[in-house]
Amino acid sequence: MAAKKSALGFGFLPEQSQQHFLVTIPKTTDDLVIIHERFQWQNGIEKQIIDEFVDKPKAQLSKHKWKLIEEALKVEFNHRLKKDAILTGKWRVGQNPVEKLLGKELLLLVWAIEDSDPSVIPIAIRNWRGLSAEERWWLFTMTNASSGNIHDKRGWRKAVRYALTENPIDEKNKQVDLFELLVNQQKDV
Questions:
Q1: Under a CB-based contact definition with an 8 Å cutoff, are residues 10 and 75 in contact?
Q2: pLDDT score of 105 more than 90
Q3: What CA–CA distances, in Å, run from 28 to 31, 64, 148?
Q4: Burial class (CB in 10 A: 0-12, 13-18, 19+), 85
Q5: Which one of 30, 139, 169, 183 counts the least CB within 10 Å of its CB?
């Protein structure tokens, strides 16, 4: 059996690609969890420096909402990392690097719940889990292109929120036609 690759955070291998997402989890419950998209990594520096001209803040979330999704993210990501023979990750207070494709999936779920009532988060998680990785990447790409900045709350971002929080899946975890719902939501926005 081959040895597992050592990674930073959740699957981030800076020697393969510098692009990653950085999830900063605060110590206090009053501060916000912030997610940046980054294109550089400073090896040997314990705390990564956020360059406001290069690094892109993508979302912020209350620590309460983060706590409601962090386990689902950890389970999903670690399942996939194990399949790829990469050491699994764990969320820690402070900065957590996330491999770029996993980061896109993370952001899709965060965008869906950032302005939602916490009571709908379990629905969003079920719907998010019902999508394949490729569907999540596609939805991220479409949303990011039109409304991917930290304070964008319109267009695709709004449609993703409705699609994942108000689009219940049946008990057998079969997804209702999400793409049809997104197109209809986009027409209403």
A1: no
A2: yes
A3: 6, 11, 26
A4: exposed
A5: 30
* Cβ(21)–Cβ(35) below 8 Å: yes
C-alpha 83 chain-centroid distance: 19
pLDDT digits (tens, 9 = 90+) for 17-49: 999 999 999 999 999 999 999 999 987 666 788
Q: What does the pLDDT look like over 124-166, one tens digit per residue?
A: 999 999 999 999 999 999 999 999 999 999 999 999 999 999 8
Q: Give the Cα-Cα-Cα angle 101, 103, 104 (nearest 5 degrees).
A: 65
Q: What is the spatial distance between Cα 62 and Cα 141, in angstroms, rounded to a whole number?
A: 24
Radius of gyration from C-alpha coordinates of the chain: 16
Give the burial class of 54: count Cβ atoms within 10 A of its Cβ; 0-12 exposed, 13-18 middle, 19 or more buried.
Answer: exposed
In 10 A of CB 93, how many CB atoms? 11
List 94's β-bridge partners, or say none. Answer: 25
Cα distance between residue 87 and residue 80, in whole Å? 10
CA separation for the pair 34, 59 (Å, rounded):
6
pLDDT given at position 170: 57
Q: Who has greater pLDDT, 120 or 186?
A: 120
